[in-house]
Amino acid sequence: MAQVTLEEIDTWNGDAQEMTDLILGIPADCLDDVVVGEWSARQVMTHMLDSELVFSARLRTAIAEPGNPVSAFDPDAMATRIPYQSVSIEHVGQAFLALRAGNTEILRALPAAAWEQTIDHPEHGLQMLPDVVRVFGPHISSHMAELRAAQTRSR
């Protein structure tokens, strides 16, 4: 598997800023309106933070403890069991941006050999670092349309 390119990393970092700007542009009284399925704009944003947290752990495991197991990720359980409605959306956005920025700095600094490292996923078995990165890096774009729709409805 080929190393992730700097262009990909830069795009993913820009997407994080764009998503956060979209969320912060939604009026507070619309943040909990359903955007798609059963999820609100707030839940989509907190899902992005949860995903980035999971990615952070997997990234660091692959680099520092290659081959070690990682936990599964149940986004629906996090969305329904964590009281995110009590957390400032600004804080969620800031945390997401800070974490994404730190992760992209790590990715940019990795030596070529690190891209050969793996994690042991409970559902998918051994995954090489580029595979892990390419799951989480572009993940934001899959939720952008949902957030744009919420922003349009709020106007």
In short:
The protein has helices at about 5-25, 40-65, 75-80, 90-110, 130-135, 140-155, and strands at about 35, 40, 120, 125-130. It is mainly alpha-helical and about 160 residues long. It has a single domain (about 5-155), classed as dinb family like domain (Four Helix Bundle (Hemerythrin (Met), subunit A), Up-down Bundle).
- Mean pLDDT rating: 89
Sheet with the most strands: spatial strand order: 1-2
| Unreliably modeled segments | none
CATH class: Mainly Alpha
SSE order in H/E notation?
HEEHHHEEHH
Total helical segments: 6
CATH H-level superfamily title = dinb family like domain
What is the C-alpha radius of gyration, as a whole number of Å? 16 Å
| CATH architecture annotation | Up-down Bundle
Question: What's the story with the biggest beta sheet?
Answer: 2 strands, antiparallel
Silhouette: globular
Strand content: 5-15%
Residue share in helix: 55-70%
- Quote the CATH topology: Four Helix Bundle (Hemerythrin (Met), subunit A)
Structural class: mainly alpha
The CA-CA distance between the termini, in Å, is 44 Å
In total, the number of strands is 4
Q: What count of structural domains?
A: 1
Which descriptors would you attach to this protein?
155 residues, mainly alpha, Four Helix Bundle (Hemerythrin (Met), subunit A), two-stranded antiparallel ribbon, 6 helices, 8% strand, globular
Note down, in words, how this protein is organized:
- There is one protein chain.
- With 155 residues, this protein is mainly alpha-helical.
- It has a single domain (6-153), classed as dinb family like domain (Four Helix Bundle (Hemerythrin (Met), subunit A)).
- Helix content is 59%, strand content 8%.
- The protein has helices spanning 6-24, 41-64, 75-81, 89-109, 129-136, 141-153, and strands spanning 34-36, 39-40, 118-121, 125-128.
- A hairpin with a 2-residue loop joins strand 1 and strand 2.
- The termini are far apart.
